[in-house]
Amino acid sequence: MIRTRRPGALRLALLIGLIASVPARAQTPTAPNQPDTAAIGSSLSPALLRDLPASSNLFQLLETTEGEVTSDRFYGGGLNTGRPARDGAFLSSWAQTQYFVGDVNITMPNGGTPFLFPTVSFWDRVDVATGLLPAGVNASGFAISLEPARPAAKWTSIIDASGAGTSFVARPSSTAAQPIETLRQWSHGGLLVSGPVSPRVGLVADVEWAGASQVNRTGVTEADGQAASVFAHLVYTPDPLNQLHAVGWVQRTQAPFAGASAFRSPSAADQTTFTHVQSSWERRAAAMTWRFFGAYSQAVASRADAASATPVVERLLDGPVPLLIDSGDRTDRQWSIGARAATTRRAHAFLAGVDAGRSSARIGPGFVGAVAEQIDGRRARMWQYANNGTDSHRHATSVAAFVADHMTFGPGRTFEAAISYDGVQGEADRATTGISWNNVLPRVSLRWKRSESSFVTYVAGYRRSVDRLTFDTLAVGDPSAPTANVSRWTALGIGPLVQRVGPGTGGDPTFSAIDPSLSRPTTDEVIAGIDVQLTPAIRGRITGVAKHVRHLFNLVDTGAPASSYTVFNVIDGRPQADGGDVPLPVYNRLPSTFGADRYLLTNNAAEDDAWFQGLVLNAEASLNRLTLMANATASQTDGPATNRGFHAEENDLGGPGELFTDPNATPSARGRLFFDRAFTLKLSGVFRFPHDVTLGAIARYQDGQPFSRVTVVPGSTDPRDPNQGTQFVRAYPAGDARFMYTGTLDVRLQKRVNFGTTAFDVYVDGYNLINMGNEVEERVVTGPGFRNITAIQPPLAVHVGLRLRF
């Protein structure tokens, strides 16, 4: 039973009814004799990127326009400027989301975020792919492809500036709780120039700056968010057959430190400098098209003002302690080279490609000292981190290759078969074991029309993908990774030692290690759908998708097996209609086993696989005055959560966690995960009125975030105290309840005024225009305050801007 504030049947009926009223469309169809595009996904066109309200932030558009995509934060109005989103889709973890510029993968080695904070104006098109991704793109989650703007035929300049202050932000419409974040100030300025440098050379250059100030739910002002960027795209065309592209950027960002409240340092900020260069050479001949490319990316990060004698972590709000103790000092580097070739022979279009690359990270020593952990305000444990005094160095080398044959059997009838190889080898310096994975990945797809004149195409396909190796995995067994002694936190201070934790070895290679036979997480995906072309400008698709993830892995505490615990029960009192009183097991560690911990990163049992089923509706219309895109989903996940809690780093598949290291985290760990929103409906469009007036709007309905009620032990109704200190356990399966749905309406109204060859665009943006104040978090602890609202949506924020074109 899903415990939610809205009846699911009503939501589904509303969603289907709204979709039925929208002109249908799907992604741009595959061109004849060309390899397949993704079966599920959509494109943000130049018109949508230019005229939709985006606060100069691509994460804002992904969050609000893409039905399959869920973000861990709000970005409307400029919130969280400079802070990368944790975006996921369907069953995938945010750590497996991948970003591309052309053929180049620009995803950070730690996974899930790109080597930039993506602004909007530099990109000509943004493609989002979430199902049956094309051959050569091994992403088990979803992929975002950024296409840089191309040089204009004649010199064009665009100056854009916008801003907002406290008086442009409304009071919350709900008084139940404070907004999770509230904008205080926003400013943005940019200059883009585009044109021919010579008859054979063109240039696009973009300089931007964005800054925002915000307060958190407690009213404390956080560190300012900032993003200062310089982008460039140079195109050299020596002759009609050859073209050379060079793309690069330098960007400096600042964002509030996620653990600022725990470290009692509200001004603490993460600062990162990104550098990226890439180049490609493409030759288009009659017989064959080929291209070579190469790239280098770097991110240098540090943290300011995060000092605290003894941070105090509230586990239910701040998350697990190990996720907060990195110093923020790290340097990530990545280079890659590759080639693509395509040729056509009668009814066959062949495509082949190869990529090779290397990633590395230097990670400074983490926090040194004591971290106090409390659970629902009760003292629990004291984590004492030692100084290992050395930087951690992790690196990985990858090689991938694929071949695909796209066969045409008649008008609208195609079949594609592809096979890929994906190999990676990674390790940490001085670690006794690393990871080596080699996988062969098949892909097949079919598109079938009954006749040339039919406007219905049937689509089906199968794909296997594998997870990307992320560097948090390589922390296990790393001699330079953090280690800590965990003791009880009592009224008298630090109590007895109860546990030793990694992921580092602390000088003992047997303390923390990677299983030499560790298998790679593998996703099998099947899709089937109907693609409908109503008119040349109106198209729609309904697609069903199912995924099965095998070979998930996590840490196991081999030094403290089940025999190291006794079990007692606490009672979760429920109404008779919901099962009545339910006993919940609490695992009480035997003092004789304290400190005997040993950790192995190994694969989960087969019964801990993950599953996904969903239905996706994509629609788009491009009419005379209207550009419209609709995305809707109905879906369900079933998988093991790596940590207790409801945040993106807890109720998720990705990354080593406490699932098998603390038996109190194991019961009821299966269920609906963070990125499972059950039902979503997102409509976005631009309407061009007479007299150069344009209205862009994004309407979002998204079911609430899944969570589990938890019982804290000892509690008011059961005073028994586990030997290892205060604990909490799930009262029912992961994600079996939901917070209230999220609803927003963002608009941009703009008017153009022309003076000869110069044009002024005056615009006003409204984010959460109707000032909806639904809750986004609630109290999750069993007791009288259960489901009391603790945070609501950010309130209405208004921007005023001016754009000059000449």
Question: Can you characterise this structure?
Answer:
- The chain has 806 residues and is mostly beta strands.
- The protein is built from four helices and 46 strands.
- The longest helix has 13 residues, at 8-20.
Looking at this protein, list some descriptive labels:
22-stranded antiparallel beta barrel, globular, 806 residues, mainly beta
Q: Which percent bin holds the helix content?
A: under 10%
The radius of gyration over CA amounts to 26 Å
Oligomeric state, counting identical vs distinct chains: single chain
**Biggest beta sheet attributes:** 22 strands, antiparallel, barrel
Form type? globular
Give unreliable regions as ranges. Answer: 6-35
- What structural class do you assign from the helix and strand content? mainly beta
What percent of residues are in strands?
A: over 45%
Q: How many helical stretches?
A: 4
The mean pLDDT is 91
* Distance linking N and C termini: 59 Å
Q: Could you give the count of β-strands? A: 46
